[in-house]
Amino acid sequence: MIERPISPRKHDRLTAFLQAFGLRAVVTNEADAEANLFLVTGDDGDSASHIVVRVLGGVPSNGAFSVLVAARIDFGGVANPLVGALPEELVFSLAEQPQMRGLADALAMEVENSRCGGRTVQERLCEIIVVLAVRRAIDMGRVNAGLLAGLAHPTLHPCLVAIHDKPALGWRTETLAQLTGMSRSHFMEQFTRTVGKTPAAYVTSWRLMLGRAEIAAGHSVKATARRVGFGSAAAFSRAFSRIYGYPPAEMVTKGLR
């Protein structure tokens, strides 16, 4: 009997962000200053050649590109840590990305031919393209220090995924180190150098970002504190105020976001 090698477990590095902060696309035009996803043509000008993602908006840096389709991608606001972690611009050649190629062709066709439900189809295609672009950026290591560098790290990313998926667990440094297969000291050094903060500080910051999103969505402070891993509403409020400069209750009373 021939034994097959066991494939390493694959970890979903993006769903926690998409569920917590959302992702929404609106097809627009290249004149829209907030457009941040572009389907562009190269020299021939006939068909799509590249996908360009500029998280904070702005036209593609390559002036030779002509825009076929533009869209505004809302990542759930600047509170989503992906917004600050992604490079200023991501450019993908469709000749090298067959999966994106098919989606880009479908998107261009939907925009060109007005059909029933076309707007919905266009927006869903844009959302899928963006998720694939971010996924590809992580896989290809097109990231610097910080969150995405941690998610791209071959041994650190399992512990980050675990934190993101189960923020309310009482995460200890030793437990997180075990998830990576590193010693405690080596894990601490690698995590801090790659992500830019200690594991404990990252756990707290992730809980607070989730808590802020939940409060903005209308959940109570008490219920939110419990869901994101704080022992009490008071502890959550103190940590929240220390980072954001105001207590979570003010997000409701003053309409802060």
TrEMBL record:
Presence of the UniProt keyword Transcription regulation in the record: yes
Domain HTH araC/xylS-type: 157-254
Alphabetized UniProt keyword annotations: DNA-binding, Transcription, Transcription regulation
Molecular-function GO terms, alphabetical: DNA-binding transcription factor activity; sequence-specific DNA binding
Gene3D superfamilies cross-referenced by the UniProt entry: Homeodomain-like (1.10.10.60)
InterPro entries xrefs: AraC_lig, AraC_XylS_family_regulators, Homeodomain-like_sf, HTH_AraC, HTH_AraC-typ_CS
PANTHER family (UniProt xref): ARAC FAMILY TRANSCRIPTIONAL REGULATOR (PTHR46796:SF7), HTH-TYPE TRANSCRIPTIONAL ACTIVATOR RHAS-RELATED (PTHR46796)
Record's protein name: AraC family transcriptional regulator
